[in-house]
Amino acid sequence: MLITANRRSDAEYEPLDSEIYRVDLSDASIHALTDRRGPDHHPVVSPDGKHIAYLGFDDKRLGYQATQLYVMDSDGSHSHSLTPGLDRDAAAPHWAGDSRQVIFQYDDRGSTKIAAIDLGGKMRVLADDLGGNDITRPYLGGSFSIAANGRFAYTRAASREPAALATGTSSRDIATLTALSDTLLRQRSLGAVEELSYDSSVDRRRIQGWIVKPPLFDATKKYPLLLEIHGGPFASYGPNFAAEIQLYAAAGYVVLYLNPRGSTGYGEEFADLIHHDYPDNDFGDLMSGVDAVVGRGYVDPERLFVTGGSGGGVLTAWIVGHTDRFRAAVVVKPVINWASFVLTADMTNYFYRYWFDGFPWDDVQSYWKRSPLAYVGNVHTPTMLMTGEVDYRTPSSEAEQFYQALKLRKIDTALVRVPNASHDISARPSLLIDKVAYVLAWLKSHDVKSP
Predict the structure, then answer these.
(1) Which residues, in sequence order, are bridge partners of residue 72?
(2) Do 340 and 398 meet the contact criterion of CB atoms below 8 Å apart?
(3) Residue 248 backbone dihedrals phi, psi, to 5 degrees
(4) Same domain? 385 vs 288
(5) Distances in Å between the alpha carbon of 79 and those of 6, 21, 148?
(6) DSSP characters over 190-231
(7) Domain of residue 179, residue span
(8) Is residue 278 part of a domain?
(9) Which residues, at least 6 apart from 184, have a Cβ–Cβ distance to it below 8 Å?
(10) Domain identity same for 322 and 265
(11) What is the dihedral of CA 31, 33, 36, 38, to 10 degrees?
């Protein structure tokens, strides 16, 4: 039996340093198969028993480090990476039935792909439209399985319908098997999803994003715009169905969502542009995206709104502290004060070491200058805060700090505390409906013209 564990005596201070172990069930003896600084996990034994595929990376203490796909002999010898040149996160390894290939998935520029790679490192893409893990917001993801004969099944993403089940043996013969939402979708009009690409004002880097237009969109009209920012920050959006985004579009908003620097699926260099610098330069990426859409002529520049959750909440709070161009904002489950966050979140032993260069009391200025709270004195935008009452990732105390600071400054604000909700505020359909209703009510109450 194979397991993954961090058995260091100081494991609570080195949270990423796990190894793969073989456990002998006859005598309960444990033998380490890997030994390096960094995570080794998700071991999968080949059908012939000769090899083990697994995931990991050499830990360089960076905010983002691409996970590679490794193979070793069953005794732990001859370990090597199959994906040293991929520069993307490998995930979900499965062995093909002949034990000669590993099938895995990875995110790449707004899509999730399934690929096969042989033991010599030769790779081919089997599908590029995996998705469906999150139907609330357009995060990348999805899952797949593979049969002994090489046929794979997976959750196939689409921009205007929830994921369907599809199957194939290569990228040329994929067939969709299900259409579970057809009856409902025939009774609904959804917003069209359009890709956007533009240069950031920060350094002319190309940024990818998507625009979702209201149903029955008319380019001769002027629409309000809602910028919706993803969390993470090491995560990625794509052109996938997202109920929350479609609900905003149905309410009359042009919705813009982007993958600014720090997003995954664009390589380590792009993701680590925010290493020890988040959220500063993301601001320029996001504002350049807003400018690009306003420049198309169908958005009213006087009716701009912004929201986001988790890392997106950080950026929303940062935005209102750095510009007054938005009429209203909704900050969801944010980090407001990096020092208090590091000392109260559920991964204290990780955040201070990988997202900063030391303890908050040793580097007060670095923590403070990256905290939205440092700029709350500049905020004039009506801003609502939303937090889950049992959120251990970004505790409620973070949102409460910004709320109380805005109250002291007599800025129009509100605080929504979601009972029994963790970091995933929209974990249940009823909570998703409530979240969207609160957001839309706040935006409408501060709009010059109701959409």
Answers:
(1) 52
(2) yes
(3) -65, -40
(4) yes
(5) 19, 14, 25
(6) ---EEEEEEE-TTT--EEEEEEEPPTT--TTS-EEEEEEE-S
(7) 89-188
(8) yes
(9) none
(10) yes
(11) -100
The answer to whether 266 touches 329, Cβ cutoff 8 Å, is no
What pTM, to 2 d.p., does this model score?
0.96
> What's the total number of domains in the chain?
3
Q: Is 9 exposed, middle or buried (0-12, 13-18, 19+ CB in 10 A)?
A: exposed
Q: Residue 140: inside a domain, yes or no? A: yes
Residue that finishes a domain, picked among 159, 188, 217: 188
Residue type, 76: G
The first and second tokens of residue 421, run together, are 């909700």
352 contacts 358 by C-beta, under 8 angstroms: yes
- For residues 216 and 164, membership in a common domain is answered with no
Domain boundary among 81, 116, 138: 81
How is residue 232 written in tokens? 């993470």
384 and 429 fall within a common domain: yes
Q: How far is the CA of 14 from the CAs of 5, 6, 348, 354, 366, in angstroms?
A: 12, 9, 11, 11, 23
Beta strand 68-73 with 80-81 is: antiparallel
CB 248 within 8 A of CB 226: yes
Burial class (CB in 10 A: 0-12, 13-18, 19+), 177: exposed
pLDDT tens-digit profile, the chain (451 residues): 999 999 999 999 999 999 999 999 889 899 999 999 999 999 999 999 999 999 999 999 999 999 999 999 999 999 999 999 999 999 999 999 999 999 999 999 999 999 999 999 999 999 999 998 888 999 999 999 999 999 999 999 999 999 999 999 998 999 999 999 899 888 889 999 999 999 999 999 999 999 999 999 999 999 999 999 999 999 999 999 999 999 999 999 999 999 999 999 999 999 999 999 999 999 999 999 999 999 999 999 999 999 999 999 999 999 999 999 999 999 999 999 999 999 999 999 999 999 999 999 999 999 999 999 999 999 999 999 999 999 999 999 999 999 999 999 999 999 999 999 999 988 888 999 999 999 999 999 999 875 5
